[in-house]
TrEMBL record:
Cofactor (UniProt): Cu cation
Subcellular location per the Swiss-Prot or TrEMBL entry: Cell membrane; Membrane
Ranges where the record places region Disordered: 315-336
Homology family: Belongs to the cytochrome c oxidase subunit 2 family.
Keywords from the UniProt entry: Copper, Electron transport, Heme, Iron, Membrane, Metal-binding, Oxidoreductase, Respiratory chain, Translocase, Transmembrane, Transmembrane helix, Transport
Segments forming domain Cytochrome oxidase subunit II transmembrane region profile: 23-120
Organism of provenance: Paenibacillus hemerocallicola
Gene3D superfamilies linked: 1.10.287.90, Cupredoxins - blue copper proteins
SUPFAM superfamilies in the record: Cupredoxins, Cytochrome c, Cytochrome c oxidase subunit II-like, transmembrane region
Protein name: Cytochrome c oxidase subunit 2
Function: Subunits I and II form the functional core of the enzyme complex. Electrons originating in cytochrome c are transferred via heme a and Cu(A) to the binuclear center formed by heme a3 and Cu(B).
């Protein structure tokens, strides 16, 4: 009775665990719901292995239970039963069957291992995107279109995307579960990887290699759009943003040039050129992004300004350990560098950045 009671006690724990694990399916971070050919092939190999494993488990369990019942000690039975040693027929059977099962799993696995490693870097039909992992954000450079963005990877559906994976610092791993498996970004080398989205949609991505304090917050979004919409997006990214109108935004632009341009590239409203440093994310057409810093969602129209303010008030509170200097003085912050801005200047910057989009 005791034993049963302690087993019952585990049930609430199991229930909680089930809830926590289903949490893994939130925001489409699942390999079980493929949205492109790469993920589909990979899932088919997962299912094949699973079926073979369940089959082996079932057969072994059936034999086990049968033997347990059939050869149990019966009343009145004494002494040790007859001992049997070595049976060629049985040994051949249990060597050959696993061998065949391994071959069944190996055929698609080996086939897809080579197929999914194909290098599309020279394919004129593939979109060439250089991905750079940074602590703790993602940079996307459209190599032929000469466009750079961050956190939101906009791609055309139905087209192969050739990713050139690089890292600016430590090892990261580029992972969009619904589109396909992960691949590392290694410092000092370029890893090729390709994915394709069948249909327009938003697919969530994550860094899958522990890379520092805010690793778990190193998220990005893949926004697959129709090829026409993609062309429009490319054109809009190349079209200069209109000059700020409100006095506050004009003030913000000045502060930005003074304090932020060294690290962030953006459109210059006078020269109509993209200018600025590459230390931080490129902020061209920033108001069109689906998030601030990859994790604060811009779902409602008011969110962008609120999120920008949250970020600029204390970036360390949003992403601990990130490398942006504190815009304001934050007493006791682990980021020592501060740009010494006041609230009014922060509001001006928010106004300016929130206006960075095509009208
Ligand atoms: C020393 C370089 C540096 C300076 C100066 C700097 N930043 Fe940053 N900034 C960064 C880095 C690095 C990140 C990426 C942080 C992360 O996500 O891990 C960042 C992120 C951001 C983001 C979020 C970007 C995104 O993709 O959503 C915004 C907005 C931003 N900075 C605005 C500013 C503003 C405004 C200023 C000037 C007051 C400024 N930054 C000054 C380095 C800098
Ligand atoms: Cu990372």
């Amino acid at each position: 009775m005791r034993r049963w009671q302690s087993a019952w006690r585990l049930i609430p724990l199991m229930a909680v665990l089930a809830f926590v694990l289903t949490g893994c399916g939130l925001e489409n971070l699942t390999a079980l719901d493929p949205k492109g050919p790469v993920a589909e092939k990979q899932l088919s190999v997962i299912y094949l292995s699973l079926i073979v494993m369940i089959g082996v488990f079932a057969v072994v369990m059936i034999i086990y239970v049968y033997v347990l019942v059939r050869f149990r000690k019966r009343p009145g039975q004494t002494g040790i039963p007859k001992q049997v040693e070595g049976n060629h027929k049985l040994e051949i059977i249990w060597t050959v069957i696993p061998f065949i099962l391994l071959i069944v799993i190996a055929i698609p696995t080996v086939k897809y291992t080579f197929e999914l490693d194909k290098d599309y870097s020279k394919d004129p039909n593939a979109l060439q995107v250089k991905v750079t992992g940074h602590q703790f954000w993602w940079e996307f450079e459209y190599m032929n279109e000469k466009i750079t963005t961050a956190q939101d990877l906009v791609i055309p559906s139905g087209r192969t995307i050739a990713f050139h994976l690089e890292s600016a610092d430590v090892i990261h791993s580029f992972w969009v579960p619904t589109l396909g498996g992960k691949k590392d970004t290694n410092p000092g080398m370029t890893n090729m990887h390709y994915l394709k989205a069948d249909k327009p949609g938003t697919y969530y991505g994550k860094c899958a290699e522990l890379c520092g304090e805010s690793h778990a917050l190193m998220d990005f979004k893949v926004k697959a759009v129709t090829p026409e919409e993609f062309d429009r997006w490319i054109t809009s990214m190349k079209t200069p943003t209109s000059a700020p109108v409100s006095a506050q935004a004009v003030e913000g632009e000045k502060i930005f040039k003074d304090k932020c341009l060294a690290c962030h590239a953006i459109y210059n409203s006078t020269s109509k050129q993209v200018e600025g440093g590459k230390v931080g994310p490129n902020l061209v057409d920033y108001a069109d992004r689906s998030t601030v810093a990859g994790i604060l969602f811009n779902r409602e129209p008011a969110d962008l300004k609120n999120n920008l303010k949250t970020w600029l008030d204390d970036p360390q509170a949003v992403k601990p350990g990130n490398l942006m200097p504190n815009p304001k003085n934050v007493p006791g912050s682990k980021m020592e560098q501060s740009l010494d801005l006041n609230d009014q200047q922060i509001n001006a910057l928010v106004e300016y950045l929130a206006g960075q989009k095509q009208k």
